[in-house]
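call fold(seq) -> tokens
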Amino acid sequence: MQNYIIRSILLLFLYTTSGICQIPDNITFHGTFVDAQDGHPIPEVLIRVAAEKIERVYPDQEFGHATATDTKGAFSLTIPSVDQIYYAFALMALHPQYQAKRLQQEMLPGKNKYNLGRVALMPTLPLQGNVSGEKNVAGLLVNLKMHNRAANFFRTAAPIENAAKTDTTGNFNFTELYPIEYTLTISRNRLIIAFIESVNPQKQVQISVNLPKLKTLRGTVVDAQEQPIAEAQIHVTRHTETSHGHSALLSSTQTNEAGSFQMEVLETEPRLLSLEVSKKGYFSRVYENVDLDKMPPILPLRKGESVKGRVILPQNIPADGQYTVKVFPIDAQMEPSLNPLVLQRPILSKHFPVTASTFVIGGLFAEKYILYTVGNDISATRIDVDASMNPEQVLIVADQPTTTLQGQVFWADTGKPVHNAVVSRSWYPWELQPYDMSMTLDRFEVETDAQGKFKFHNLTGTHYQLHIRAVHAVLEEAPRRYQRTLVHKQVDIPVAGTAYRIYIGRRDGTPFAK
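ret:
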């Protein structure tokens, strides 16, 4: 949660210009937290503090200091003096009955005591409801899932999902909600029997849900020879109506020995409904815009092709390690990018122990593919295969070990090393997983140390791109404070395995917005 909070407020930190000071002594924050509605003090508010250092692009990764308010709502928190220069502190106030609040306190030269005064917190919101439409409405699971708004600060502290159960009369009750939109679902035995796209507890304190009737969906799954397929999985999904809402798996079942299935499905507009049929060794089939009254009774699946291979790996790799074979379309672009979200992810990715010299990749069309063999201490190795003409084992010689990409960053005007600079490297598609959205930046970022050095491990010896971000700070006399400038530089690295000296200067960057 702490890392999530830091990432969510990163942009606000990056585009703020503030005064900076060397802490002369222990620094103390104090104040009082009160209820925004009636003004009474709030005890047991958790106060967490994180620092922003002068020469760091990112704030500290953890809220390293914490305390709680007393019975009068007051708190006092002293940060021990350390050999660092700060320009601001972020304070996060958390309480289960109140909406989380973030405060930023800029540092002033020579000042070490900061009174935040009275800080008002808004209570979290309740939502009561009633379910009707059936005789037995007890024990139903009511779930609220927060809408996915990237700029929504409340996501940094509020629970993403909330759940409650109905009582014998169908009543349910939520507390500790935020004034934002949620998707509401009601389910029984994992079957969703009601779905509401958007509920906002700030606008509606009471909600009534009349359970709609479910529709029965029947069918038979067969192969290309019209033979029944047992244990095929059937999933029916309701898709979101907005870019911020959520989809939901309405119902699931599997076929019997005769390939037949029967399932109850919540009636939904066809444009929002899809049905997926799948089984290992067969190609999944997805039906979009499903009209439950017009679904075909026979659902065919095609059996997939397989690729068999034998791999030669580097010597002296740990016996308990793994290698991975990743499958791409034959026309996939395999160039690197500094934005992994634009890369094509593999179609399939399968892991094997390094003690297994042979592998089988199933579920492929009778087409040509690119196979990459990767793993710790194994350089990525490519081979092209044709799944329609591959009865024999293909041989993959992946015996080259990985290497490192390392270097040192210096200021161009002074020649001094740049510490705490963020160095991002480009990624190749073979470094991704089929489900990988690559949202965690630290997976391909490092910070320079006190000597300006950085290093990336376990890389294939090929070319990469680097994106370097550093903070250049200049002390202004009037007003007396530091002006921070975020400096950017992009560098092409022809081959990993060599140490590089990189110079960066103010003309490479753009200033922070005030």
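Helices lie at 2-8, 10-14.
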